[in-house]
Amino acid sequence: MKKILFTANLESFFSKFLIPQLKYFKENGYEVHIATKLDRNNTPFCDKSFNVDFARGFNLKQNIKSYKELKEILKNNKYDIISCHTPFGGAITRLVAKSLKLKNTRIVYMAHGFHFYEGQNKIKYALFYHAEKYLAKYTDEIITINLDDYEIARKKFKTKVSYVPGVGIDVEKFDFEMKASEKDKLRKSLGIKKNGFVMIYPAELSKNKNQILLINLMERIVKDYPNTYLLLPGNDTYNGYYQSVVKDKKLDKNVLFLGFRNDVPKLLKISDLAVASSIREGLGLNLIEARYVGLPIVAVDNRGHRDLIENGKNGYLVKNNDIDDFEDKVRLFISQKNKNLIDPKVVREGIEKYLLDNVLEQIIKIYLNK
User: Which helix (H) or strand (E) holds 142?
Assistant: First the structure.
């Protein structure tokens, strides 16, 4: 039986992005293994789960430890394909494969947004750029998910590089009707007043996701539009920092921290506008989902948003941390006369390329070298 190994820093990464890929190989006769930091040990469609504590930064001791752990796994298993993800999980995997001089094993690295990007600290940019350039030589193919990364890798890295528009969204989660009464009930359960204007940003609470920009924006907006709400569904990885800022600004009734939710499609359907404030993004999956349900978008201009938003057509891009421009664009949507500023049908135009069936087919062809 053929074997495939997937590696990534955290097990939660698999549930967010890789389940369809695991499912495909499991259903097509492969023995599927994963190597990651097991925090749940319940990833479906895999036959073996190896606990490898990949670092999330330049922690030499932890990187050496994970290198040794993964080396033992690769020594004891012969894989036909190794699919690596995340910067340090991907780096350690390729270094181990290089040291073992694996034969007849196809090494694919899927870059969910390179960790060197426009506006980053110059030292960190250089470290990540040169690391990726070096590792590319020991990679059979790199998959990039946005056009900026694709162009850099294609021109600078000595390996085959492909572009695939993300990991795909499962439309079955979104293809349902919500009656007006159901929407009203859900809004009411969240404390949203009738005729309130609702913005949404589904993402983990973190420094990179930069929710502070949206919180400061809300402080300005609610002075004129007190029935404006910001929904923030997502796990908190920032130790309650944003919640404390909201409390200090007395925005508790307008900025709603919802934690992990399994009903994000419903939350999108009760919202009026999608927003995104992240500093770095591979490809904004949350924005793809928003576009699928017809929500217009206001988002920070970065490589992961740039591919998805055409100014004035399906939303607006604003310069990083330009709160004045962000505020101007949001106010366009809140003002009654501009409620239909952007047609939902136009927002959905071209969304087909980002759907799971289309994307997965491209990814599988790359894994199988077709």
Answer: strand 141-144
d(CA 312, CA 184) in angstroms, rounded, equals 29
Q: Which amino acid is at 191?
A: G
Cα–chain center distance at 243: 22
Summarize pLDDT for 173-223 with one digit per residue, the tens: 999 999 999 999 999 999 999 899 999 999 999 999 999 999 999 999 999
Distance CA 17, CA 285 (A): 10
DSSP calls for 267-279: HHHT-SEEEE--S
Cβ atoms of 247 and 268 closer than 8 Å = no
What predicted TM-score, i.e. pTM, was given to this entire model? 0.94
Q: What is the C-alpha to C-alpha distance for residues 236 and 257, in angstroms, rounded to an integer?
A: 9
| Farthest CA pair distance, the chain | 66
Give the C-alpha separation, 55 to 57, whole Å: 5
pLDDT (tens digit per residue) in 323-361: 999 999 999 999 865 667 899 999 999 999 999 999 999
Amino acid at 33: H
DSSP characters for 221-255? HHHH-TTEEEEEES-B-STTHHHHHHHHTT-TTTE
Tell me phi and psi for residue 28, to 5 degrees.
Answer: -115, 30
